[in-house]
Amino acid sequence: MTRRDVVFPPAHQALYARNRYSPAIRSNGFLFVSGQVGSREDGSPEPELKAQVRLAFANLNAILAAAGCTFDDVIDVTVFLVDPESTLDTVWQVLPEYWGEAPYPTLTGIGVTWLYGFQFEIKVIAKLPEAAERRSVG
């Protein structure tokens, strides 16, 4: 079995350890990032939705940076929303702060009934820059 090339951010690891998953894995030139939520360092949810979305992006960006990426390297996004009918407009007010300019990544939005106490989760796949690929191989 091939050993997984796991990427950990400098902080926010309480949920990873508690739920036994890796924040991200480098593989074949891509970075596969687990769903990121607006969790505080202790793993608890940020209560206010806009702040929760911003914290989810901060957690996501920390993982991307640890792998040598930025959101500009993201090619595919999946967002999960609890009660999207009432939360989508609020989330969409925050996304432009992080989304960058066109061309945008692909996007799939999924409405769910439960996210471990959170209202928003974002999962991405990014293309690793060549320098980051060489670091992970060497």
Automatic annotation (TrEMBL):
<dbReference type="GO" id="GO:0019239">
    <property type="term" value="F:deaminase activity"/>
</dbReference>
<protein>
    <submittedName>
        <fullName>Enamine deaminase RidA, house cleaning of reactive enamine intermediates, YjgF/YER057c/UK114 family</fullName>
    </submittedName>
</protein>
<dbReference type="InterPro" id="IPR035959">
    <property type="entry name" value="RutC-like_sf"/>
</dbReference>
<dbReference type="Pfam" id="PF01042">
    <property type="entry name" value="Ribonuc_L-PSP"/>
</dbReference>
<dbReference type="GO" id="GO:0005829">
    <property type="term" value="C:cytosol"/>
</dbReference>
<dbReference type="InterPro" id="IPR038743">
    <property type="entry name" value="YjgH-like"/>
</dbReference>
<dbReference type="InterPro" id="IPR006175">
    <property type="entry name" value="YjgF/YER057c/UK114"/>
</dbReference>
